[in-house]
């Protein structure tokens, strides 16, 4: 039976990470397992920045965005010697197993630690929803709601001035945030990297046509949700304004999408996943990642999970085009 577990958050922070940390801590304590919070991701693991958790340590965090453990990018962790030093630090406090909350890169770290004898379970923590083995990632729901609320506000102003607004949302190389925000805010056009062939002049011509067509139909504003993976929002706005004569403004929402109080969905799913991670470690599992698929929480071998491919739902993309007309 495992006696001591650590938990860390790694890569970009995501709302709901705190709920997962709290669930790991409290599930451990409930089972009589010692539990440590590791600060600053793998950097803190290497530097021995550990906080011994008791029941009070994770009070009043379930409702807070960000991560109480802080997060960091630490490329040095790819070096096996650096990982060995981290394992030494873990051994000093008796930490035998680790829950890693982060994205694909963080899973690689967990996989390598497992190969070096530390039992690991990873949880998908990223606003981007770009993890293939799961239909849910911690933080996506909150980020989409945050962006949607900002878009609603921009829409008010866009309507008042009869403008075109290009709103750029996060997502790295994935368009899930853009697609969801586009549908949720009734956008006229949605640009996502998964359906962009790299031909910018062609894309801009299509947008120009779409703006003129909708203007002729009597639309009083034109919302374009642009994923950061397509990008170039400011330049696009300038060229669209020149070609259409419709005043066009670009807004890049940026890191506001990573903050804020997590939604109920992010709190509940993250809590479930945190508890499940501890149960998996208690059953002797290692090198696993927890996902949510077809209405069920499920765990995969990390290598298998990283080998999976993912694409946006084509039907969802198609209806988004139709509904925005
Ligand atoms: P994310 O987890 O959100 O994908 P990153 O790709 O930045 O974010 O990875 C987070 C951290 O995971 C890195 O800073 C590094 O510490 C660790 N990591 C990433 N890739 C590897 C790897 N191949 N081997 C070991 N550790 C890795
Ligand atoms: O992965 C989450 C994310 O917010 C992406 O959507 C974005 O591309 C990236 O992180 C931004 O990273 P940073 O916080 O390092 O600027």
Low-confidence spans: pLDDT under 50, at least 5 residues? none
Could you give the distance between the termini?
A: 59 Å
Radius of gyration: 22 Å
What share of the residues does DSSP label as strand, in percent?
15-25%
- Going by helix content, strand content and strand pairing, the class is alpha/beta
What coarse outline follows from CA principal-axis ratios? Answer: elongated
Arithmetic mean pLDDT: 97
Ligand names: adenosine-5'-diphosphate, 6-O-phosphono-beta-D-fructofuranose
Topology order in helix (H) and strand (E) letters: EHEHEHEHEHEHEHEHEHEEHH
Widest β-sheet, arrangement of strands: 3-2-1-4-5-10-11
SS elements, strand count: 11
Number of helices: 11
Residues in helices, as a percent range:
40-55%
| Largest sheet report | 7 strands, mixed
Could you write a compact summary of the structure shown?
The protein is an alpha/beta fold and 325 residues long. The protein has helices spanning 17-31, 41-47, 80-93, 104-115, 140-160, 176-184, 200-216, 233-244, 264-282, 302-306, 314-323, and strands at residues 4-9, 34-38, 50-52, 97-102, 119-124, 164-169, 189-191, 222-227, 248-252, 288-293, 296-301. The radius of gyration is 22 Å and the shape is elongated.
